[in-house]
């Protein structure tokens, strides 16, 4: 391991100041630390956000759940507040990685990293959540910008994510057995206003909405309504785990299962 300095600020302002000066933020460390061990990342300064207490926590705010960026996966999975308001989100958190990953990984770290096979981005986009930062509020549709890319500016910190409470929702994924990332995962939600959102993760270069399925489900929220709606193979990627055609097929299957689960 190479030399680097370690900082553990206790306030958002101090953390943002360090980040703007070029430091690398550390949330749960489930991506950064392995990258450093493999020499794929070599930050000169690491800024541990675990000391900023007000970045964690779960609270109900009207018709939404506000979840702090440093809230661990297991805390989301085990929260009675989340289980009561958005059970699909609790179930999603419970199926991330293994117990060790869930104990250390954070909501904000996962969303900021925007791994193309991560689970949380599907919930953020599928529920039409709002990402709150130290500078502004960013709608989910504007936040994710492709492979490991987001709308965050240099030194901008996610502070919390506000999830609208839907009428019903579900998340189903086909796991890659070694990593437990989503080979394909689909989050389906019928929001309070009756509109439907469908977000697909693991299929391509980043999470995306499936608008054709959304339109079909808005007319009839049943698995049969999307049984003949094809996933766009051109948006899918292929690798040793599965071809683009296979992933496109999986997206349709996972979407139907998610609708059936949400409607049950």
Automatic annotation (TrEMBL):
Give yes or no: UniProt keyword Oxidoreductase: yes
Q: Which InterPro entries match?
A: CO_DH_flav_C (IPR005107), CO_DH_flav_C_dom_sf (IPR036683), Diverse_Substr_Oxidored (IPR051312), FAD-bd_PCMH (IPR016166), FAD-bd_PCMH-like_sf (IPR036318), FAD-bd_PCMH_sub1 (IPR016167), FAD-bd_PCMH_sub2 (IPR016169), Mopterin_DH_FAD-bd (IPR002346)
**Which keywords does this Swiss-Prot/TrEMBL entry list?**
FAD, Flavoprotein, Oxidoreductase
Segments forming domain FAD-binding PCMH-type:
1-168
Domain of life, per the record? Bacteria
Transmembrane found in the keyword field: no
One GO MF annotation is: FAD binding
Q: What Pfam families does UniProt report for this protein, alphabetically? A: FAD_binding_5
What protein am I looking at? Answer: Carbon monoxide dehydrogenase
